């Protein structure tokens, strides 16, 4: 059995579903079910005996200790995190508690349990920590992409908290010998993405006839990774990654935000045209940029390809069509995740810009 933390969130739920579609190895899924954790993401696994869901916090040492003793997982894949930059700016406390303190508690309980295992189980165990390229800071337009050796220069409370968690994972490997692996991924997109991030927000707002808010001039550049490609990379790192190593996972798809929004509008114009015949691009609205907005991220994913033979299958052009089509086909899911609290947050974040 493997233990997946944060397995009801966007990336975590995609990973759990992909894992069980390709393996008969059970998954113990621990998720706190905050605003972005959604059991509807896992509805297809409702009657699957290979999926064991537990609602709980990675910071709850007693709970985690009990689960480790009861289920004896051979690996932990840690997706659990607060992950939205804008929320970290308006309320950093949760990010410090979950991403730093929570990761510490998870590592500490895991270390105590792992040290009691017999030698074969100790050697075979892995703790895989899923992180972000945002820990590396911002790149100039002509700078080479982030490699695993790039210095950490986080610029938001979110990225600083993730950087701290990465350092803790590294320290537990070097100090205690805990067999850890770390992945730093670029921007994910795909099914089940909570609609406050750029791509799902643009799709949902476009279809609802609402403004499409673009920060600043919209020329912030990101590398985009289809979520199912990310899942396959994590499986490969878990399978064959070298203990103590970091692997950058990217999609080789650098795009400016404004180009992403325009491309979404073009596809929606074809797939579900507006009733008035106008393009969805008419809804694009430029808003005040957020504080400390990094200008460019780019991932150099050659190490994982060279050492582990992994590379993404989807181009952005194929992935974005699959993503838009999923949202068009799953409007009930979208309606259900748009709670009052979510709408209030959108109003507070974009209403004054």
The whole-angstrom Rg is 20 Å
End-to-end separation in angstroms reads 47 Å
Which overall shape is indicated by the principal axes computed on the Cα atoms? globular
Strand portion, in percent?
15-25%
Helicity, in percent? 40-55%
Q: What is the CATH C-level name of the domain at 2-189 and 225-253 and 292-313?
A: Alpha Beta
Number of helices: 13
Poorly predicted ranges (pLDDT <50, ≥5 residues)? none
How would the blueprint of this fold be written?
Layout: E1 2-5, H1 10-22, E2 27-31, E3 51-55, H2 61-71, E4 75-78, H3 85-90, H4 93-114, H5 119-124, E5 126-132, H6 157-176, E6 180-185, E7 187-189, H7 198-207, E8 212-215, E9 221-226, H8 227-240, E10 246-249, E11 254-256, H9 257-271, E12 284-287, H10 302-308, H11 316-329, H12 331-337, H13 340-350
Parallel strand pairs: 1-2, 1-4, 2-3, 4-5, 5-6, 6-10, 7-9, 8-12
Antiparallel strand pairs: 9-11
Protein architecture, described:
This protein has a domain at 2-189 and 225-253 and 292-313: Rossmann fold (3-Layer(aba) Sandwich), CATH 3.40.50. The protein has helices at 10-22, 61-71, 85-90, 93-114, 119-124, 157-176, 198-207, 227-240, 257-271, 302-308, 316-329, 331-337, 340-350, and strands spanning 2-5, 27-31, 51-55, 75-78, 126-132, 180-185, 187-189, 212-215, 221-226, 246-249, 254-256, 284-287. By secondary structure, it is of the alpha/beta class. The chain has a seven-stranded parallel β-sheet, with helices on both faces. It has a three-stranded mixed β-sheet with strand order 7-9-11. Strands 8-12 form a two-stranded parallel ribbon.
């Amino acid at each position: 059995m493997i233990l997946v933390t944060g397995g009801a969130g966007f990336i975590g739920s995609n990973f759990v579903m992909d894992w069980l579609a390709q393996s008969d190895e059970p998954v113990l899924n621990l998720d706190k079910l905050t605003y972005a954790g959604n059991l509807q993401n896992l509805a297809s696994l409702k009657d699957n005996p290979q999926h064991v869901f537990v609602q709980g916090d990675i910071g709850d040492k007693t709970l985690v200790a009990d689960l480790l003793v009861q289920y004896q997982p051979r690996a932990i894949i840690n997706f659990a995190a607060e992950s939205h930059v804008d929320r970290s700016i308006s309320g950093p406390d949760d990010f410090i508690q979950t991403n730093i303190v929570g990761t510490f508690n998870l590592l500490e309980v895991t270390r105590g349990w792992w040290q009691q295992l017999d030698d074969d189980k100790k050697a075979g165990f892995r703790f895989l920590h899923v992180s972000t390229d945002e820990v590396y800071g911002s790149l100039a337009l002509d700078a080479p992409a982030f490699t695993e050796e790039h210095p950490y220069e986080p610029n938001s409370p979110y990225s600083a908290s993730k950087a701290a968690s990465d350092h803790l994972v590294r320290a537990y490997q070097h100090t205690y010998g805990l067999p850890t692996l770390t992945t730093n991924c670029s921007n994910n997109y795909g099914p089940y993405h909570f609609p406050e991030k750029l791509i799902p927000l643009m799709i949902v707002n476009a279809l609802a006839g609402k403004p499409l808010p673009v920060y600043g001039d919209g020329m912030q550049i990101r590398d985009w990774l289809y979520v199912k490609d990310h899942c396959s990379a994590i499986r490969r790192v878990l399978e064959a990654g070298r203990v103590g190593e970091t692997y950058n996972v990217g999609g080789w798809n650098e795009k400016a935000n404004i180009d992403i929004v325009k491309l979404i509008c073009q596809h929606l114009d074809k797939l579900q045209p507006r009733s008035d015949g106008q393009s969805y691009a008419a809804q694009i609205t430029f808003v005040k940029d957020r504080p400390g907005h990094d200008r460019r991220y780019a991932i150099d994913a050659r190490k994982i390809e060279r050492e582990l033979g992994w590379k993404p299958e989807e181009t952005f052009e194929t992935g974005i069509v699959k993503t838009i089509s999923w949202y068009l086909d799953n409007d009930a899911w979208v309606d259900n995740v748009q709670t009052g609290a979510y709408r209030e947050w959108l109003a507070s974040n974009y209403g004054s810009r």
